[in-house]
Write a structure and sequence with these properties.
The structure holds two protein chains of two kinds. Chain A is α/β, with parallel strands linked by helices. Helix content of chain A is about 30%, strand content about 30%. Chain A is globular, with a radius of gyration of 25 Å. Classes of the chains: A alpha/beta, B alpha+beta.
Chain lengths: ~525, ~350
């Protein structure tokens, strides 16, 4: 195989832009394009695909990757969501907290159909809490269909360790109502923590129509260009799912945007460990990559006001961007947090507008070129410019330091339309890198993603021995990664965490392992 | 007689206070918050009374969840296990309770008694035995007062139930832990049955409202209100000992406890480091190897920017935080306290350090 083959296309659908990039087997960018995100995002995907393929030999392309905000937007806007019937297998436990407790009323009204907490689920030991109430499963299935639900979400206590009752429920639902309804099972969606996993499973079920449309649209667009390729979607952790798998698990793609952007920037800069600062018109977001993957947040993540147990990239956002408004008042300098945002291209002083923004400061300070007219900011007080850049430098310095995990100096990657605001030298930063093609870092990040497998399981160290338990989890994670398409020869373990279980006898320990490898 | 009522609206502040008083452990109060909210929405507000509101011989029973926090995340309470445990102990004593009391105001066990009181239509008694979180049943001011933990009851949600008589509070801990391992590790326990007179003499008074008020003050700090931080520190008698960044986090499990060591570097660039020893809860904080805050005083970590109280489970490398020392409830200052909950009780060869006044 030569590197001119095995070409890949990456497409990223963001809130504002839909980008596409074509790379060769070595990761070199062959072509890229930025288009506007359209009302129906599939129009934008077709447009970006057409642009990036212009003058290229489509027969050399073997894979296409899509990162998209479709499902996230559906939840945020409460649009296109299906009504979902909900089964919780846990009775007689768990009745003290209802299904959908703590959900915002508006999304509850749209999404929640008939719900039932029924007998079933397992103990931490693997024993049944109660035998599955099969009649109750059938009843709920019929009720859900009658109520116009398009899907049923099934969540059982300890199903990540003991999925039997969830799998049996899916069979019973099929048997009762046939293919009239989709089924989402919690052990396929989330990790330990019944309420958060149940929430994620319900959201997943409500997104199935949206995700099927996206996947179908993506594959149709590829076929329209006679591309006979494997298609994938990127997931929250920066790895890939096959498009077919993504159609069934859309909730796993919700946070892929920032992940792709950070991973793309790092790959373009050729580094594995770095702080990434993405400066836009209104805000600057910082994250950190450790060994090529974003550090994950420890806090519970809310999606559209619903608490889930997904790990999302740990990001900090501050009000500092190219459009941030600068005011020199008698009480002192006041910068932001308000911004003219995307209107910076018409509102800033340097383009003939009437608002002093940080872009004007950057231009006057000689940090920005290719935007605005220097003559229009020539009259700015030199002291004001110096104080403003001093403020910007301090803010970015604090932001970078907040993300770093040790005192050791690391590179900082400056990306985004406002990246000119990042100074060339900062304390605690080994170098400031402005990677090439960083405007399409998201699409590039999607393109270079790998396949993964992860395991989240409770072991008993006293019975089986710590080394053996961890080895078992590692082997299981690698097997799952290979099943998702990773090359066994190059699959590696990217994280192992052990969470001791207080008060659980036998040295109980929750072990979470992830394996990642390049596509075969 | 009723001094105040708790409604669903108070639950959020109590949960914030409970996380703080959990002093790094105590179990995440999130599920307990949902349980309490659902119970109060269903049954209406709960009356909060003090021991002095009751005749001295009035029977009061406690309720708590016992098990493993990680199991409780999967096996959510039914609610019936709590009422079953309370009723069983009342039956055993031949005397139903007139009020429900928490034993641990700190972490997950703060809010559950409020839900149980709502469900049973009883008032909740504004007192407890710790006003912080500790890992074992005998670690209460009741033990210092010579109050036995037994007879006590342990129940699950299926109707399994044990009532124990015990010869010591340490034995009570051992028996209860053994029972819950068989009962699914997410169970209800009612222990330390007391009269209102015993409570007036031995318990920590006003701990539920203290928890709510501390939570409210911290919420004011989080909203960045003028002078809120200073008010929070002075009202609780707390001091900020360190502003640091987590640079090392060593987690291990020994004898069923989640033990860990946190290492923080000074945020302001000095060479000072703080080390915190953790066994479920934060127990000893050293500045440059000098013990600075010790159990039973509270060592609490707050996020440097948001002032959210941090639990050991949620801490990660790079977290920036304030470390505050908070004096424990004055009711702890009794004979025997150091043997029960001082540094040596947890195996540290460290002398107790007084909080600065």
């Amino acid at each position: 195989m030569t590197n001119t083959e095995q070409q890949r296309i990456g497409i990223d659908v963001g809130g504002t832009n839909t980008d596409a990039v074509l790379i060769d087997g070595d990761g070199a960018v062959l072509n890229s394009i930025k288009t506007a995100t359209t009302l129906d995002p599939l129009d934008g995907i077709r447009e970006a695909l057409r642009g990036v393929l212009e003058g290229q030999d489509a027969s050399l392309i073997s894979r296409a990757m899509l990162g998209t905000t479709h499902p996230a937007n559906a939840i945020i806007q409460r649009q296109g969501l299906d009504k979902v019937g909900v089964l919780r297998l846990a009775l007689p436990s768990s009745t003290a907290v209802n299904v959908g407790a703590a959900w915002p009323q508006d999304i509850r009204d749209v999404v929640l159909g008939p719900t039932a907490i029924i007998e079933g689920g397992h103990e931490y030991t693997g024993a049944e809490i109660a035998p599955l109430d099969e009649d109750a499963v059938r009843r709920l299935a019929s009720e859900a269909v009658a109520a116009g639900c398009k899907a049923i979400a099934v969540s059982g206590a300890f199903s990540p360790a003991s999925p039997e009752h969830e799998l049996r429920s899916a069979e019973l639902i099929r048997d009762e109502v046939g293919d009239a309804i989709n089924v989402s099972l919690s052990h396929q969606v989330g990790a330990l923590g019944l309420l958060e996993r149940e929430n994620a499973t319900i959201l997943n079920a409500s997104l199935l129509t949206v995700s099927h449309a996206v996947v179908y649209g993506f594959q149709t667009a590829l076929a329209d260009h006679s591309l006979d390729v494997q298609s994938y979607l990127t997931q929250n952790d920066g790895t890939l799912m096959t498009a077919e798998h993504a159609a069934k698990n859309p909730v796993l793609t919700l946070a892929s945007g920032p992940t792709n952007s950070m991973r793309g920037a790092c790959a373009l800069a050729g580094v594995n460990d770095a702080v990434v600062v993405d400066v836009g018109g209104t805000s600057a977001d910082a994250g950190i990559l450790v060994d090529g993957f974003p550090r994950e947040s420890t806090a519970a993540v809310e999606v559209g006001g619903v608490r889930t147990n997904f790990r999302m990239p740990d990001l900090i956002s501050i009000g500092l961007g190219g459009g941030t408004i600068v005011r020199d008042e008698s009480s002192g300098l006041r910068i932001g947090p308000d911004s003219v945002g995307y209107a910076v291209s018409t509102e800033a002083l340097c383009v003939g507008g009437g608002t002093l923004t940080l872009s004007d400061i950057s231009l006057a300070a000689g940090r920005l070129d290719g935007f605005g007219d220097t003559a229009l900011v020539a009259g700015l007080d030199a002291d004001l410019v110096a104080r403003s850049t001093g403020w910007v430098d301090e803010q970015i310095s604090i932001l970078a330091d907040r993300m770093k995990s040790s005192r050791e100096a690391v590179p900082l990657l400056a990306v985004g339309g406002g990246a000119h605001l990042v100074p060339n030298a900062l304390d605690g930063i080994s170098e400031v890198v402005r990677p090439p093609h960083h405007g399409v870092a998201n699409a590039y990040g999607a393109c270079i993603s790998e396949a993964s497998g992860s395991v989240d399981k409770v072991y008993s160290y006293d019975i089986d021995g710590r080394e053996e338990c961890i080895e078992d989890a590692r082997a299981a994670a690698i097997a799952l990664a290979v099943e998702s398409g990773a090359d066994p020869a190059d699959t590696r373990i990217t994280s192992v965490s052990e969470i001791p279980m207080t008060y659980v006898p036998g040295g109980g320990c929750r072990v979470v392992v992830k394996a990642v490898g390049p596509l075969q | 007689m009723t001094i105040t009522q708790l409604s669903a609206d108070d639950i959020e502040s109590i949960a914030v206070g409970a996380t703080l008083l959990g002093t790094g452990g105590g179990g995440d109060p999130y599920i307990a918050k949902l349980v309490a909210r659902q119970a109060l929405e269903k049954h209406g507000p709960v009356d909060v009374i003090t021991a002095a509101d009751l005749p001295p011989d009035a029977r009061v029973l406690t309720i708590a969840i016992i098990g493993a926090p990680t199991v409780i995340l999967e096996k959510i309470p039914a609610g019936t296990e709590f009422t079953t445990a309370v009723k069983a102990l009342g039956d055993y004593l031949g005397e139903p309770p007139v009020a429900i009391m928490p034993i641990e105001v700190g972490g997950l066990n703060t809010l559950l008694p409020i839900a149980t009181a709502a469900e049973m239509g009883l008032p909740v008694l504004n007192a407890d035995g710790m006003r912080r979180a500790f890992p074992q049943i005998e670690m209460t001011v009741f033990t210092l007062g010579g109050i036995p933990a037994g007879p006590m009851s342990v129940a699950d949600e299926k109707g399994n139930l044990c009532v124990f008589e015990t010869t010591s509070n340490q034995m009570a801990e051992t028996l209860a832990r053994t029972a819950v391992i068989q009962l699914g590790l997410a169970n209800a326990i009612s222990c330390y049955p007391m009269t209102a007179g015993q409570i007036a003499e031995h318990a920590i008074a006003d701990s539920i409202t203290y928890c709510r008020d501390v939570g409210r003050m911290l919420e004011e700090v989080q909203r960045n209100e003028d002078g809120a931080w200073e008010r929070f520190l002075s009202e609780t008698g707390s001091h900020r000992f360190f502003e640091g960044k987590i640079v090392d986090l060593d987690r291990r499990t020994t004898d069923g406890f989640a033990k860990s060591t946190l290492l923080l570097e000074d945020l302001h660039g000095s060479d000072q480091v703080m080390r915190i020893e953790v066994q479920n809860e934060n127990l000893i904080a050293y500045v440059d190897d000098v013990p600075t805050i010790t159990t039973p005083n509270l060592i609490c970590l707050l996020d440097h920017e948001t002032y959210e109280p941090l639990t050991t489970e949620s801490i990660a490398y790079g977290n920036r935080c304030h470390v505050i020392g908070m004096p424990c409830a004055p009711e702890w200052q009794r004979d025997g306290v150091m043997e029960l909950v001082g540094p040596s009780a947890f195996g540290y060869d460290v002398d107790y350090v007084e909080m600065p006044s």
